[in-house]
Design a protein that fits this description.
By secondary structure, the protein is α+β, with helices and mostly antiparallel strands. The protein has nine helices and nine strands. It has a six-stranded antiparallel β-sheet with strand order 1-8-9-7-3-4, with no helix packed on it. A three-stranded mixed β-sheet has the order 2-6-5, with no helix packed on it. The termini are far apart.
């Protein structure tokens, strides 16, 4: 996959709606089956959400191939203008939430595993907003994520509330950190509008025991030991425990150093 980007001048901010699960990261095929196999035969005939098939999730990481994930058939991707503070609000919703598949109801306790294998883990958005030290340890890389909206009139009309397609596109292109990108996947190249996935969490996803933020590495390991240990063993083999202990020790030293800087106003020597 290849990506060629350009950036326009930016005027307004884009933020996630302040509600549970408004990021919708688990509604892409990095979590759900790539063929939408989780929805079953009868649900496959129901009306699609506003996001499918126009909105995808692009994941980039230095030194790794870019990854482009399809959205679930039932993802509602909605952007609305907030006239009170000149921002654009993004809200991702399941259009069949009350009838969503079992794999979706159980997430993140199922953590992407099969229906019959339970393994509790943090949800993908809370891992995305975790520290670089956590991601470097558990995934051996830092990564950034973007909503990739097909630069198409029907796509933009579908997802924008109370705006015509041309006005909506103009608003998008004037938003902060928006990129225009030509993305090649196989022989096909399409134009996309890339929206960086906001990391400002506020009250999002912290409303239950399942959706807790990733704090320190030690806290995360104690909460989600099985999943994190499985990742570490895959990456480091028999050295996984030493890698974990070293990361916890380094994180504690960094926290102590920051505490000293906050107290004295000067870096610790």
């Amino acid at each position: 996959m290849s990506i060629h980007c350009t950036m326009n001048k930016n005027l307004c901010d884009m933020t996630l709606a302040e509600s549970e699960c408004s990021d919708g990261m688990c509604c892409f095929t990095c979590v759900i089956p790539a063929n939408n196999g989780h929805i079953g035969f009868f649900k496959s005939m129901w009306r699609s959400g506003t996001g499918s098939p126009y909105v995808k999730l692009l994941v980039t990481s230095e030194g790794h191939k870019n990854e482009l994930y399809e959205s679930c058939k039932f993802l509602d991707f909605i952007i609305a203008r907030d006239s009170a503070n000149s921002t654009l609000k993004i809200d991702l919703r399941c259009s069949i939430y009350k009838h969503r598949p079992r794999q979706c109801r159980d997430y993140p306790d199922s953590a992407g595993e099969s229906l019959y294998q339970k393994i509790s883990g943090p949800c993908i958005f809370n891992e995305y907003t975790a520290s670089g030290a956590y991601k470097n340890l558990v995934y051996k890389r830092k990564w950034d994520a973007f909503y990739a909206i097909q630069d198409d009139r029907d796509a933009i009309r579908n997802i924008f509330v109370n705006e015509d397609a041309l006005t909506a596109r103009d608003l998008l292109l004037k938003a902060k950190d928006i990129h225009l990108a030509a993305i090649s996947a196989g022989a096909e190249e399409l134009n996309y509008i890339l929206i960086p996935l906001p990391k400002r969490t506020q009250n999002i996803l912290y409303l239950s025991e399942k959706h807790q933020p990733v704090g320190t590495i030690e806290q995360a390991y104690h909460r989600w030991q099985e999943k994190i240990q499985k990742n570490l063993q895959n990456h480091y083999g028999t050295e996984w425990e030493a890698k974990l202990n070293n990361a916890i020790e380094m994180e504690e030293k960094d926290a102590g150093k920051r505490c000293n800087e906050d107290t004295t106003g000067n870096p610790e020597c």
